[in-house]
Amino acid sequence: MPDHLVAFWNVENLFGPESHPHRIPWVASDVGSDLVGWTPALYQRKLDQLARIIRQMNGGTGPDILGVCEVEDQHVLADLGTTLTPLLPSRNYGVIHATADLSFRGIDTAFLFDRNIFTVEPALVFNHFVMRRTGTRDILQATFKSVASGKELVVMANHWPSRFGGDGAQSSAGFRATAGETLSYWHKRTREEASAGTRTPVLALGDMNDDPWDRSLTINALATRERGDVERATSERFYNFTWEYLVTPATDKNGDKRVLEGTLYFKNNGNLFDQILANRPLLDGGSSDFKIVDDSAGMIAFPEMVSHKKGEGPIRFGLPKGDASRNVNKDGFSDHFPVGILVREA
């Protein structure tokens, strides 16, 4: 029974270089001066840094499925796959991408997946928009079919609307409530329409821009910390594995232990925005094609990714914004840590 690593990473503004020939005009307008000085060399350095971490996942074999967000288009994903090829020669990564045409910055969700292990039918790829007045974010859904067995796993990559305003994110809370409702609705529809019905295994990962205790998760997305409730549920409930990595130990370059309190940090405070949700078929003792491996969920934070300044968390790469010498850290990666979980194929 093989175990598959399914991971997610907000890769922080993975845009093509300033001269990117595929850039959509409205994206160029909205991004504005952020990409001034984003040379092909800096862009490739960013790809190299991301690939350096992805290669180390799953015990050095790379993930089987990797959801990402904040990617400009399928071309940058293809470049990331090309960068990974010499590092993971046994892998054959394919791309699933659907442009979020209404996004105000062109930051999309997508998947890289190993085509040696899974196939994806294009007709079973859906892009669910989370509508708002000033643009949208998207939830990308794909059904991954095992090459070996033909068994199917539905995975949903999320990027929920960001926090803004000076009132503790209350001004934007309604947008994330809508995102939670969107996820829950399509979870329900998937169970109704999929061939396995209510026994369809559904895994939802992503940057929710809220913590696991916020109402957008607990009320709107029906994501709970009570695993037993989900194992007995007849409705569209998720168990939120994020509660299992509230505090994650990491080893720094000197071999010392430090505690990571979030998947990202803002003003020296950790937040657990990057989450992993699983439905009942992945958890209970009933028949299902895939099951979660217990105690396998967590943040993925290799020593070189972790800032050793108190409260900074991940070491970000940044964008030049006209001055790369000040705004880009060539030794950085992203402002988020990846998260991942093992799924066992029955």
Descriptive tags:
Deoxyribonuclease I, Chain A, 7-stranded mixed β-sheet, 22% helix, 346 residues, alpha+beta
Describe the protein's topology.
Elements: E1 3-14, H1 25-31, H2 40-60, E2 65-71, H3 74-84, E3 93-97, E4 108-114, E5 118-132, E6 135-146, E7 152-159, H4 173-193, E8 202-207, H5 215-220, E9 223-224, H6 227-231, E10 238-240, E11 248-251, E12 257-260, E13 264-266, E14 269-271, E15 274-279, E16 290-292, E17 298-299, H7 324-327, E18 339-345
Helix pairs in contact: 2-3
C-alpha termini separation: 6 Å
Please summarize the sheet with the most strands. Answer: 7 strands, mixed
- CATH class descriptor name: Alpha Beta
From the spread of the alpha carbons, the general shape counts as: globular
Instruction: Fill in the CATH topology.
Output: Deoxyribonuclease I, Chain A
| Mean pLDDT across all amino acids | 91
Number of strands: 18
**How much helix, percentage-wise, in residues?**
10-25%
> Which residues sit in consecutive blocks of at least 5 with pLDDT less than 50?
none
How many DSSP helices? 7
DSSP strand content: 25-35%
The CATH architecture comes to 4-Layer Sandwich
Domains, number: 1
CATH superfamily label = Endonuclease/exonuclease/phosphatase
H/E topology pattern: EHHEHEEEEEHEHEHEEEEEEEEHE
Task: Note down, in words, how this protein is organized.
Helix content is 22%, strand content 32%. The protein has 346 residues and is of the alpha+beta class. It has a single domain (3-345), classed as Endonuclease/exonuclease/phosphatase (Deoxyribonuclease I, Chain A), CATH 3.60.10. Strands 1, 2, 3, 4, 16, 17 and 18 form a 7-stranded mixed beta sheet that branches. A hairpin with a 2-residue loop joins β5 and β6. α2 packs across α3 (74-84). The chain is globular, with a radius of gyration of 19 Å. It starts with a strand and ends with a strand. The relative contact order is 0.16. The mean pLDDT is 91.
